[in-house]
Amino acid sequence: MPVVFADAALAARLERLSAAENERFARAASRAHPEDDAEAIWVAGGCAAFCTPGGPLNEVSGLGFAGPVLPAHIDRIEAFFARHGARVRVNVCPLADASLVAELSRRGYAVDGFENMLVREILDSDVLPEPDPAVDIRIVEADDAALWGREVARGFAVNGESTGAELRLGDAVAVQEDIVRLLAWVDGEPAGTGELAIREGVGWFSADTTGARFRGRGIQTAMQRRRLQLAREAGCGLAVTESYPGSGSQRNMERLGFRIVYTRVDMVQPER
Known about the structure:
The chain has helices at 8-32, 71-83, 99-106, 145-156, 164-174, 219-233, 248-255, and strands at residues 39-43, 46-50, 59-61, 89-92, 110-121, 136-139, 180-186, 189-199, 202-210, 238-243, 259-268. The protein has 272 residues and is α+β, with helices and mostly antiparallel strands. An eight-stranded mixed beta sheet has the order 4-11-5-10-9-8-7-6, sandwiched between helices. A three-stranded antiparallel beta sheet has the order 1-2-3, sandwiched between helices.
């Protein structure tokens, strides 16, 4: 199987796509809940997005690939999030310009987490693994998007019951445009979710959840296999996803030929 090597050009491509997804999601959040004042701005080649109050996708991606990151750039980002009553969270790619980490560190930003970026090349000659016939993976049509969004929210719930922020997240993902929504069914019940965004020859996998009662039954693996097939059918040469370091999701992806190309560092603004 071909190996994708990490370099600055690949990182710049992926971070640019990630930043564009920030903007798309903010637009979706604005349609779902106009009262939340969701919006996104572009600064120094990156995108800062405020999506939902207290939500996990209020963040900045793509900084450090359009030249040095200047104090004025971070000033503008901080003012943007302050207007929304939120702290700044920056996804820092290790291949970004060194000025990004230097400026964030100077301001007292702290490391708050890590996220692996995994990539798999998709060739026409690849023999892709077949989905598990025991898991019924269906493409969700627009009429059922709200159901899918609720399943995403339920899948991300930490204690079994979705918070207001998680429900808003589900509402926003349900109204996104230009994505493929997938729902896994087992024994006639929704068991897991997945999303495929096709962007510039890249198939981006996200919104992976598995219902608590269905964990350990290969739901996520079946979902990844189905999306690999769909991505190839759409002409994608790369498949991309994210995972927490050392997680079960990472192991599932590596079994399917994905490889870590770099690890992002989440840096957050000090509390005031």
